[in-house]
From TrEMBL:
Classification via PANTHER family: PROTEIN YCII (PTHR33606:SF3)
One Pfam family hit: YCII
This protein's name: YCII-related domain-containing protein
Residues of the YCII-related domain: 3-100
Domain of life the protein comes from: Eukaryota
SUPFAM superfamilies for the chain: Dimeric alpha+beta barrel
Length: 117
């Protein structure tokens, strides 16, 4: 089944909205993992708190969350987009809808996590 990488930047200065919607987003992520649709998912950090600019991880990294990146396994690009648009971060106004991208990626046949099935 194809793999899709989803890059979902947050609207600027939107941490409070992100944190308010986070429990629902994480609950859906658990269901995605159990169903075999989620391969990987993490928040990404703003440059102000990232390790490459700050030198080492900060205890306040959650305050620097600036978006999400996920790898999903779905039959079609439309299915991957439907999953993104059903996410609480989309419906709750966390992700900047004009900047979200979903692209198919090539799986690695020797990697058990990211191989195409």
């Amino acid at each position: 089944m194809p793999l899709f990488i989803c890059h979902c930047p947050d609207y600027p200065n939107n941490l409070e909205t992100r944190l308010a919607n986070r429990p629902d987003h994480l609950a859906a992520s658990v269901k995605d993992k159990e169903a075999g649709n989620s391969v990987f998912g993490r928040a990404f950090l703003s440059n102000e708190v990232s390790t490459h600019t700050a030198g080492s991880p900060h205890a306040d990294q959650p305050k620097g969350m600036a978006g999400s990146v996920m790898i999903y396994r779905y039959p079609t690009l439309e299915d991957a987009w439907a999953r993104i648009k059903a996410d609480k971060y989309w419906t709750g106004g966390v992700w900047d809808k004009e900047k979200v991208t979903v692209e198919e990626i090539i799986g690695n046949p020797i990697d058990e996590t990211i191989k195409v099935q």
